[in-house]
Amino acid sequence: MTDDTTQLAVIGGGPGGYATAFMAADLGLTVTLIDPAKNPGGVCLYHGCIPSKALLHVSRVIAEAGEAEAWGISFGKPKVNIDRLRDWKNEVVSGLTDGLGRLVRQRRITYLQGTAAFLNNRTLAVSGAGGGDDRRLVFEHAVIATGAVPVRLAQLDIGDDRILDSTRALEMAQVPKKLLVVGGGYIGLELGTVFAALGSKVTVAEMTAQLLPGVDRDLVNLLEKRLSDRLEAIYKNTTVQALKAQKNGLKAILRTGKDGEQVRLFDQVLVAVGRRPDTAGLGLQNTGVVCDERGFILVDRRRRTAEAHIFAIGDVVGEPMLAHKAVHEGRVAAEVISGREALYEPLAVPAVVFTDPEIAWAGTTETQAREQGLEVVVARFPWAASGRAATLGRSDGLTKLVVDPRTERVLGVGIAGPGAGELIAEAVLAIEMNASVADIGLSIHPHPTLSETLKESADVYYGTATHFRRTKGLRRS
Ligand code: NAD
Questions:
Q1: DSSP characters for 300-318?
Q2: Cβ of 208 below 6 Å from ligand 1
């Protein structure tokens, strides 16, 4: 075995891991980044955010082309060349991951293509790096950024390759005629949207009473309304009891509530029922790192584990499992390791579901405020009153503010509509800067844009919105 040394070993090259490595290198540390792939990128770039957003953009183009008929423009029925579509998606991914490889080299980071496991609390064995034997890497600090893997359901694990997880679905081998999506969460609804646009008849089976459980109902209701037109069926309170492989498809037994049972045939089944931390084979038992009962690594506000020189960030430390949260945590960890004072304590971690409409939220939601017994007032601005939304033919959106009535501080923002994922960034800044409702209302927003819906919802709070006259009092909880 060859012994190498490094000031910082970063395990996992997803957005959290590579952002940590880049920040640490920029702060002057000697860094080794370890990942099985040829270039950094992780699930986000190779099998998650980026390929799915490329395909969701295609869905949006198809949907808008269809809607344009109402404005006198006809494009005809879309012809899908699945091979070219797959190539394009792969080109997007390889362009970005190759770019990350270049950034690694520019920063003189040592990149080991392999898999790391702790031998003890100062040494890693890296297998697959440079062929041959494992390498031993002695580190001063380590950051664990190994992410998460899909949860598998035992009753659906029948070893049939027509059962997909998100990685397999994104390979886009084919467009199934009939697709069952198990799980009405982020992945199920985003990929369900993609396949529906490409021509699949999509059925969603969600175990709980609501799509996107826990997410603000006002936002989810708008999404569900539109999805109901585009998907074959949405079943809530529904689980898949069993799958049976047949020549002509997969027979699924769906159970809704206590006794609503139906048997349906699908060409493929996508299982998207959540993700769990990926620590298998990491050798954590050879360190003092401690996990909770669900397997998430326990960390403090500096992202330190129970071993003071080993840090952990991203999906492996818990919800929300979002790339931008991992990036922020990783940059905090890199600062702490380089000797700076830094803490991970965001007031708002934005979340975006890239469906149509997109839904996005940041800070405290109305649902959370109610659950936590917080006194809040909610100001809602319907996009039916937005000029820009009308020009897009998308008056079905909503922007809402959750406000502390004593201080008039904005505690949270929720948005449903095209571009909600971009619009939410203003909300994050407002919450982080302790902005009041008046601060948003008094900031001049460009016209005609959807960003005005944030300003107008602030004005709704005071009953002075230019384009919306509220007839009822504000919702309070
Ligand atoms: P999720 O937690 O978003 O959704 C899983 C859904 O499956 C839930 O609605 C849950 O109630 C349901 N479910 C669980 N068991 C079930 C069963 N037996 N039958 C039917 N339904 C069942 O998880 P996901 O969609 O797998 O995504 C995993 C994570 O990846 C998300 O939590 C999110 O953090 C991340 N992600 C984020 C984005 C984004 O930021 N846009 C996109 C994709 C994934």
A1: -TT-B-SSTTEEE-GGGG-
A2: yes
